Amino acid sequence: AASKAGILEKVEGELAALAKTASTSPAFAGFLENPLINRDRKSSSIEGLMKEAKVSPITLNLCTTLAGNAKLAELPKVV
Predict the structure, then answer these.
(1) What distances in angstroms separate CA 51 from CA 9, 36, 58, 72, 73, one per listed residue?
(2) Who's near 39: CB < 8 A, 6+ residues apart?
(3) Which of 17, 25, 66, 74 is the most interior residue, by most CB within 10 Å?
(4) Which pLDDT belongs to residue 76?
(5) Is 6 left (phi over 0), alpha (psi -120 to 50) or beta?
(6) How far apart are CA 71 and CA 55, in angstroms?
(7) What pLDDT, in 10s, does the model give residues 10-38?
């Protein structure tokens, strides 16, 4: 999707930045990995964070989909 939209490099950069943040911020990593935060809360929280960071719609969609499927902890592996 990113390639077709002509923003592949932007999405790659956003995902790399998220992976780096997950590896350097214990608070963010804890949020991603915490199984006690329900899917809806994680999804709405990650959506708010991504909109605040002004990421592309493709990155936003990926992150909210991962959150909705309880796979947000896998985000660093996507990169």
Answers:
(1) 19, 23, 12, 16, 19
(2) 67, 68, 69, 70
(3) 66
(4) 85
(5) left
(6) 19
(7) 999 999 999 999 999 999 999 999 999 99
Q: How far apart are CA 25 and CA 61, in angstroms?
A: 22
Please state, rounded to an integer, the average pLDDT across all residues of the chain. Answer: 92
78: confidence class by pLDDT, cuts 50, 70, 90:
confident
Element (H, E) at 70: none
What backbone torsions phi and psi does residue 35 show, to the nearest 5 degrees? -75, -10
Closest CA to 78 of 25, 22, 36: 22
> Cα(60)–Cα(57) distance, rounded to whole angstroms?
5
